[in-house]
Amino acid sequence: MRKIYDQAIWDLRGVVWEVEMYQKDLEAFQPQFILLHDLSRHISHSKEILDVALDTVDSITHQYSLLDEHHPAPETRLRWQSRDIEQQLYFAMKSLRSTKLRCISLSERLQNEINLAFNIVAQRDNEVSIQMAKHSLTDNTMMKTVAIVSLVYLPGTFVSGIFGMNFFDFDGLSDKAGMSVSRHFWVYWIITIGLTLATIMIWLLWFNGKDIKRVLGKRKRRGQTNEG
């Protein structure tokens, strides 16, 4: 049975060693968390079995010592046989303890590989975040450029739009010489100012809707409290 325990730990050691070699190649590394979890579970079970075996051997040793001390006929027992049994029990205890120490060391090595896998994944996520931040910075620069160009051409667009309307007459067909302005030109300003204010109000309500609801809710609760 002792050999079976020892062989099981050596087999697990071989798998952990393969994991260590695999995770050294960072470029081709793909985290195998399910495999690492299964290995950790098997090692924990092996440690539990070794603890039970050690406790069993310790109990046998203790009971044998009691039997040896209270032997009904001490003169009939063979001393060399007693020493041989004691040595075998001692050797079994030492062997199981050594196997348990290897199991503990194996568990620590595996935990180190699990931490390494998590760190590699976190590092890759950070690299992706950095790349996304760089792309966002580039996009922001492009949007800023578009905004600046729009601001440069906005006055010209506004002026051309104003003078392109039918409110102005540049053909000299009216009674007055030169440019004439329609008497309904005020309609343009009324509609434009109204639409501009409505657009600003809609944007403010949409952007600050949550804050407005929170303030109104506080006022409503405060009013209910005062009434109560």
**Fraction in beta strands:** under 5%
Q: What is the averaged pLDDT score?
A: 77
Order of helices and strands: HHHEEHH
Helix content: over 70%
Number of strands: 2
Number of helices: 5
Major sheet summary line: 2 strands, antiparallel
User: In one word, what is the shape?
Assistant: elongated
> What order do the strands of the largest sheet run in, or round the barrel if closed?
1-2
Low-confidence stretches: none
Computed CA radius of gyration, to the nearest angstrom = 43 Å
What gap, in angstroms, lies between the N and C termini? Answer: 80 Å
The structure class reads mainly alpha
Pfam families: CorA
Protein name: Mg2+ transporter protein, CorA-like/Zinc transport protein ZntB
Keywords: Membrane, Transmembrane, Transmembrane helix
Main location: membrane
Which descriptors apply to this entry?
mainly alpha, 5 helices, 2% strand, cobalt ion transmembrane transporter activity, Mg2+ transporter protein, CorA-like/Zinc transport protein ZntB, magnesium ion transmembrane transporter activity, magnesium ion binding, transmembrane
Descriptive account of the structure:
The protein is mainly α and 228 residues long. Helices cover 81% and strands 2% of the residues. The protein contains 5 helices and 2 strands; from the N terminus they run H-H-H-E-E-H-H. A two-stranded antiparallel ribbon has the order 1-2. The radius of gyration is 43 Å and the shape is elongated. The two termini are 80 Å apart.
